[in-house]
Amino acid sequence: MTYEEAIRRCIFRFVAGSHAYGTNRPESDFDRRGVFIAPLCKAFELFQTRFVGQGCIADNLKAAMKSIDNSQPEAAKEQIKAAMQTDQGDLSMSVGTVTRPGQDEELQELRKFLKLATDSNPNIIEFLYVDRLIEVSTPEWAEIKKNRHMFLSKKARFTFSGYAIAQLKRIKIHRGYLLHPPGQKPDRRDYNLPMDSKIQKKHRNAMLSLPDEMVGPGIKDEVSRERAYEDAMTNWQAYQDWEKERNPARKAMEAKYGYDVKHAMHLVRLVRMAKEILRDGEVNVYRPDRDELIQIRNGEWPFEKILDVADNADQELEELYDKSTLRDKPDHKGISDLYMDLCEQAYGIKL
Question: Model's pTM, two decimal places?
């Protein structure tokens, strides 16, 4: 389904990201997010082609580039061939997400949006609490927003902290690259390994689990060295991708402050939003602490202070979780009934 088809059936769209949080800078891009209702025929379309902006085509081309970098031309050929099969699509009963080419804009089909909101996905649950920079809002969306209380639950404690942990992991990995970049591509000879592995990867776990007397001498040691080599190669490739894909401004920012201050800002924001949800039952999208978040984005917090926030988050959130008056889980029946009602209105049928 193309973006043009989706936007014609859009029920909600807003300016997201830093503009929504109030942390935007003069050079900040305008990200747009929204929800649309797919035409009824899409529910019966067996093979769905994901849009070029974010689906199988882009994934296959990206994989082909990595295969070329890794001197795997045959794999690259197959991946390029797969990217060209745009008429085959994916075996799926849901349209899912549609993106706009060349823009940071995506629309979630209603069914997928409701599922992600029910799961308290941090990037999605905020749609229900946005009250500014709204470009499209319909009666259907008003009905969803009126029932937003059915979605919010104590589950947000885990999803928001999970996203924050992911930010911390990226910060630490990138800081490691800055302070201790891999010197050179790993070589099998450095691990005392033959040029071609004698032990298939699928058999390695079994080899390590067997008693020593059941495997040949030195086999477990060789498997361990194979693993060490693979870990080093994974780290090397991740470093190469990071060097290649990050934009120059982000690169200069990390070099200046010694860590990714943008990831750090989002880490602090996510932790605080989780606390507010558990304590107040509200998702504060436009941030009351936006001035402090901008300070973090400007590199005014030392790295150790970011670590303190992350280290203390789990205990603080657990205490709020125990005291929270939010429901333990979302109202699945209410949300399902809401979806049925919206479909009946949109399609003019009785379900």
Answer: 0.80
